[in-house]
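Hi support team,

I'm filing this because I wasn't sure whether my run with 2-phosphoglycolic acid finished correctly. The job status page said complete, but I'd like someone to confirm that the output block is well-formed before I use it downstream. Pasting the exact inputs I used:
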Amino acid sequence: MRKPVMAGNWKMYKTPAETIAFFEKFRPLVEKASHCEIVICPPFTNLAVAVGAAQGTPIRVGAQNIGWAREGAFTGEISGPMLNAVGATHVIVGHSERRQYFGETDATVLKRTQAALEFGLTPIVCVGEMKEEREGGRTEAVLVSQFEGGIAPLTAAQFARIVIAYEPVWAIGTGLTATPEIAADAHRVIRAQVREKFGREGGDAVRILYGGSVKPDNVKSLMAQPEIDGSLVGGASLDAASFASIVNF
Ligand code: PGA
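And here is everything the job wrote out:
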């Protein structure tokens, strides 16, 4: 059995004060949630505050990106040891917004994933096709090539520590959720790739999350798909009550 992961991606939202206010409301609402792992990924500037606010709870805190070097002349980057030092345990890598707007490629996704692993963080590695790619019948080819470039070069031991997130770009922030069946089909494509590269065991063990307009009212039907091992939630993770109802699906 794969333990679900419910992760909130706050993107470029919230100040430290707003982070504290969120946790005050959120903590009691998820007190009994032992059925899944809960991860909140706020902007870098709120990581320390979030870790403090989550103390004494099973809630984990993750970053939204990681530099691939230990340290150095890399303006604007944040390294694994820096994330360790503030108590982050997870990191989102290769989010489609980074791929679309900030030049992230499969090659840099791989480097960042390897850095996360080197520094003991759990990478949540994102893949997913754009609208035109789906409409052009290229979804499977895109998922395969993102897997090949960004994930397949990991060693089996490295691979065993990652979480994958399938996020169709056309469903992110648009209110257009993939139907549970569409999502599950894409998850099957990814899991088949995993099995081919890392064997049946690797394929059975890896958690594949779905992301893209996950809301309190659609999470149950998504999570009813055995292929879907959790969700990566953007907009609906910003509100404590809404994200708690997703966690408590
Ligand atoms: P959304 O974002 O839930 O707002 O669609 C998901 C994501 O980008 O991780």
